[in-house]
Design brief:
0% strand; 4 helices
Length: 143
């Protein structure tokens, strides 16, 4: 019994599974702009990059604002301005958080699990996971 030989010009090729829905990577500025443009949108999905870039933006802005406002206005006046800044960032932050949970195919109500100690760890794991490939019950994969 002979084994069939394959000529060198017919090397094995990867199996094509059709055109993949390639989603362009999102940058820091685009992620922040997307979060502000979806200010009160709690439906849909948000990719990991959008969520983590938003978190980095909020962290840097809070740190910079607290530092600058304290030196510019004093501690008492800075607290009021800083409180307004936090309120302005609350709704877009909550929106991107819930959309990120939707991307991992979890309901937005799971954000309440953070009230327990172990629930915050579970949420962190979900937020770090890659989102569902393709369409899930919360819609198609978007930016």
């Amino acid at each position: 019994m002979q084994t069939p030989s394959v000529p060198f010009n017919q090397q094995a090729r990867p199996i094509s599974r059709g055109p993949a829905a390639a989603i362009a990577p999102i940058g820091f500025g685009d992620a922040v702009a997307a979060c502000f443009s979806k200010y009160l949108q709690f439906s849909g999905r948000a990719r990991r990059a959008e969520y983590w870039y938003w978190s980095l933006f909020v962290f840097l802005l809070n740190f910079g604002a607290a530092f600058a406002l304290t030196f510019a206005l004093g501690a008492r006046s800075a607290d009021a301005v800083y409180g307004i800044l936090c309120l302005a960032l609350l709704l877009p932050g909550l929106g991107v958080f819930i959309r990120r949970l939707h991307d991992t195919d979890h309901s937005g109500w799971w954000c309440l699990i953070s009230a327990t100690g172990i629930g915050a760890i579970v949420l962190l794991v979900w937020l770090c996971q890659e989102g569902t490939q393709g369409t899930n019950r919360f819609g198609p994969r978007t930016t």
